[in-house]
Amino acid sequence: MTSRLYFAAGFAAAVAALVFAYLLQYIGGLEPCPLCIFQRVAMAGVALFCLIGWIHGPGGAGHRIYAGLAGLSAIAGVAIAARHVWLMHLPADQVPACGPGLNYLIHIMPLQEVVSTVLRGDASCATVKGSFAGLSLPAWSLIYFILLTIGALVGVLGFGARSGSARSSD
């Protein structure tokens, strides 16, 4: 597999997840909680690093660097989605109280405090708003991020990576 094909596949997978999330929001009427938004940011990071890798088409170390950066974004997504799933499984008396919306937090707090507050979660993040095949949407997100992390690990280890396109080598 060429480097470009590897990153094109990663980009397509990440964009498909983002498109699905936006369809659920704008067509399905599911309003995302702050942790959902953070998961989208992590997925956008995967998409961005895969897009850059796809355009550049590096081999060797470049391939590993882009795959590693996409992997770091995917690992961040794993952590955020795992936190989200954990919040959803807390007993009702242990769920944090509802907090202000993300837009409000961004306007009144420094970025570091916004991130900290969102990652603590609140009742809006502990509510199951949608599910498929018996799993909540954050659980599916967690599975998807784990698969993307495995894909990035394959890229970091350099399995099957050739630079550029499948044309003859120089």
From TrEMBL:
GO BP, one annotated term: protein folding
As for family, the record states: Belongs to the DsbB family.
Asked if Electron transport is a keyword of the record, the answer is: yes
Subcellular location, in the record's words? Cell inner membrane; Cell membrane
Main role?
A: Required for disulfide bond formation in some periplasmic proteins. Acts by oxidizing the DsbA protein.
Which gene is this protein's source? dsbB
The name this protein goes by in its record: Disulfide bond formation protein B
Show the SUPFAM superfamilies listed in the entry. Answer: DsbB-like (SSF158442)
Q: Which GO terms describe its molecular function?
A: electron transfer activity; protein-disulfide reductase activity
Which residues does the entry place in the Cytoplasmic compartment?
Answer: 1-6, 59-64, 159-170
Q: Which GO terms describe its cellular component?
A: plasma membrane
Record key words, sorted? Cell inner membrane, Cell membrane, Chaperone, Disulfide bond, Electron transport, Membrane, Oxidoreductase, Redox-active center, Transmembrane, Transmembrane helix, Transport
Coiled-coil region(s): none
Tell me where the transmembrane regions lie.
37-55, 67-86, 142-161
Q: Which residues lie on this side of the membrane: Periplasmic?
A: 24-41
Q: How does it sit in the membrane?
A: Multi-pass membrane protein
Disulfide bond sites: C33-C36
